[in-house]
Amino acid sequence: MSAPSPTSPSPPPSRSDSSGAAGRRDDLAPLVRAAQRGDQLATDQLLDRLTPYIGRLCGPIALADGPDAAQEALIAVFRNLRQLKEPAALFGWARAIAVREAVRVARAASRDLPAELADVPAPGDPQLAADVHDVLERLSPHHRAVLVLRDLEGLDEHAVSALLGVPEPTVRTRLFRARRRFRKEWEG
């Protein structure tokens, strides 16, 4: 796979950076339509654009199994690409698939069981990214998914509810518990 060119559309910006988002999404429509018709070059270009985005979503949810989850998500995206009716919805549609696959892979890998509290890294450890990863590892895939969608992707509770297929009160409860657990283990 080659890296996208500097003029390539990128995944949707975060909520705080909405400038030009519609233009980037519209640029993908011809590419999506060509891939839906079976154009292999278009499919490869779409794969190059979706892979990093899906990887960023699957990694924090499925942790060590993130690459497997991303691969499963990409397979599901391209297997069902012809069913996508609105090409402009590609990234939202792919996000839903990626989160679903990441949770499924993490659960299958028995990541639902939290690690022992004695394994929590000490606060102030110089490898902050490793510390955050270790703390995230102690959360269930469902809690990691809601944290990623709400706090990293910047989605509102309604959007998270729709993506995860659970009621909004469940999203609020999971988010509250995930943040509380994260904080408790971080400070532990």
> What overall geometry do the principal axes of the alpha carbons give?
elongated
The CATH architecture of the largest domain can be named as Orthogonal Bundle
CATH topology of the largest domain: Rna Polymerase Sigma Factor, Chain: A
- Mean pLDDT over all positions: 80
The CATH superfamily of the largest domain is RNA polymerase sigma factor, region 2, helix turn helix motif
Helix percent reads 55-70%
Q: Which structural class should the secondary elements be placed in?
A: mainly alpha
Task: Give the amount of beta strand, in percent.
Answer: under 5%
Low-pLDDT parts are: 1-23, 111-123
Oligomer: single chain
- What's the number of domains? 2
> Rounded to an integer, what's the Rg over CA atoms?
18 Å
What string, H for helix and E for strand, traces the elements in order? HHHHHHHH
- Quick one: how many beta strands? 0
What CATH first level of the largest domain would be assigned?
A: Mainly Alpha
